[in-house]
Amino acid sequence: MIRGKLPKRQRLIGLWLLLSGISLFGGALFAAWLDSLFQPQGLARLVLWLGCFSGGGTIFLVGLLLERMLFTPLRHLQVQLARLVANPDAREDYPPEGWLRGLGPDLMRVREAWRADRQRLATAHAEGARSAARIRQELETLLQVLDTPLLLSDHHRRLLLFNQAAETLFDDNPALGLGKRLDALLPVSSLQDALAQLPEDGAPRELLIPCDERWLHVVMRRVPNSNGETLLTLTDATAAWTSEMGARAGLADMLPPLRRHGASLSSAAEALSSARHAGRLDDDLRDRLESVIDEESQALGQGIESLGKLIEDMQQQGERLVPLWSNDLWQSLNERLGDDPLEVLPIGMPAWFKGDAPALLVLLESLLERLQRHAGTASFEAEMLLGNRRVYLDLIWTGKPLSQRELAAWSDQRLDALPLSPRVGDLLRQHASDAWSLADSDGKYARLRLPLPAVERVGAPRTLAAPRPEFHDFGIADLPPPDAELARRPLRALEIVAFDTETTGLELRRGDTVISIGACRIVNARLLASDVFDVRVDPGKPIPPASTAIHGLTDSDVSGAPPLPVLLPRFRNYIGDAVVLAHNAAFDLLALQPPGASVTLDMPVLDTLLISRALDESLDGHDLDTLADRYSLRFPPGTRHTALGDARVTAELWLALLPRLEARGIETLEQALALQASAFDREDACT
Known about the structure:
This protein is an alpha+beta fold and 687 residues long. The chain has helices spanning 9-38, 43-86, 104-128, 130-145, 164-169, 182-185, 189-196, 238-245, 247-278, 283-317, 326-337, 357-375, 404-411, 424-430, 545-551, 555-558, 564-575, 585-592, 608-615, 624-630, 643-663, 669-678, 682-686; strands at 150-153, 159-162, 205-211, 214-222, 230-236, 322-325, 343-347, 352-355, 379-386, 390-398, 436-439, 445-453, 496-503, 514-522, 527-536, 579-582, 605-607. It has 4 domains: 1-145, no CATH class; 148-319, 2-Layer Sandwich (Beta-Lactamase); 322-453, Histidine kinase-like ATPase, C-terminal domain (Heat Shock Protein 90); 480-684, Nucleotidyltransferase, domain 5. It is built from 23 helices and 17 strands. A 5-stranded antiparallel beta sheet has the order 2-1-5-4-3, sandwiched between helices. Strands 7-9-10-12-11 form a 5-stranded mixed beta sheet.
């Protein structure tokens, strides 16, 4: 017996074979001695030898019978019970075998009764929570479509909720995630002070704080009748703040000199006129007054030119001018036209530009109506052309260009569909734009061109993520405080990062290194499927074909990827204050911390290989594939032997092992680490 547990199967088989061998060898010696002593002949000699070998043969046959009829069925029964505890809804059942076959009906009755009870409980829970589910679904839908970034934190300033707009605002920021501290996302002392002083009645407080290279306008309010939860709404105020500190500040600085130049010019002109009427104007006085008028006129002209540039900057930086994707504009325009026969077909490459979308839609609709009367067609092509600091919006038709008179008439047209009924020319000036019409070089097509402010942005807009449940988890508020002792924290309350690596080979001490790191996060005993870390690593050496055959990564896949020293700090930031989890963690930790590594992974480590071995010491097979089959876990197609795919299955394996640990009274991190250490043997140490 080892540590009060059943011996491993290998030890039992070894003991059985040893006893059988000793018995057979002893029987052979005894038979040889009797044969030499009595020298029997014929049948007597055969009986003597068979009798001497009968003991060893009986031990061998009885052991073989026990292995097939009892020990193997017992191991299968242990696997089945482990599967039922970890995943009661798994439907792949294995009936008892051998001498345990008679337990089949009883075990089936217990299993079906258990599942029936679970089904009734689930049905009752579903019926009782129907209204809550509807509210939650509406909340998730609202979070998806709301354009205002939202954050909700508990009284420990852990994030309970965020929406997709917040995810976009803090793109690639590792500090955004359920259960993470707000202090890490917005580490501004003034924000922390304001949060501590928020009134309990829900009255808002506003703050302007820096975040990376942006300024965020934050509105904070305590959620009434809650346990200190705080709602934050955020707005990127960088453009408005830049406008206040840039163009508007320049305008304020420019007005006094303009007034001064204007006053000096007026005074000089008045003095010149007075001297001329009084007849006291000599050549010297006239030259001096004309010189003053000339200097002040030039200064005033330069000031007016600078003022014009400032006004143009203010128009481009106005809050109503926002980045727009041209394909979105054309789609919205066609939807606005609706049943109207007018139709716009986008051609060429789409582009980003800056504009007031509602105003542009009304403006383009009025323009298309005028072009329809001019060209006699209802179908137009639309093209975006990139210019120098401008984007040219072209509407194209078959025929002749518009005359300047028609353009002037259109520019004076009022757009009654917009507030205050501005003229077309007013909207063009808002965009620092103009309009002209020209013919193509082939003389067949004509186009009307509107230059619009460009945006330093490339690529199509990111597609909206599918609705997912990881935007909120109000149960985080019930977890222990972040500063609670980690060793005594319940396993279900742990924040865990499951990770895996792919390497150039298995000889880490002989130069093999990491080529891929994948990780996912478990918060409140819940796997967050979209909160992942998945990167390729440049190993600085060729990947052997034998390794490529396993994980599928080639030299071209990691070409241009950052090296490990660059990625390790990013991975450490992703881990944060979490406990790390891996399958055969010693290998992956050694891969991530080669000699001279600048980042140390010194947090507690859970190893599903050791935990499984400690729970089922008498069972063979603790590799990831065997355990995935044992607990009915599935690798999505193409994810086995990928870092992220293996990390996700490791996380699911941990969640399957949790009920079995709790059934044995192992409920804290300290207890889990002690159990894990009990399964660490010399073979692991050598590895």
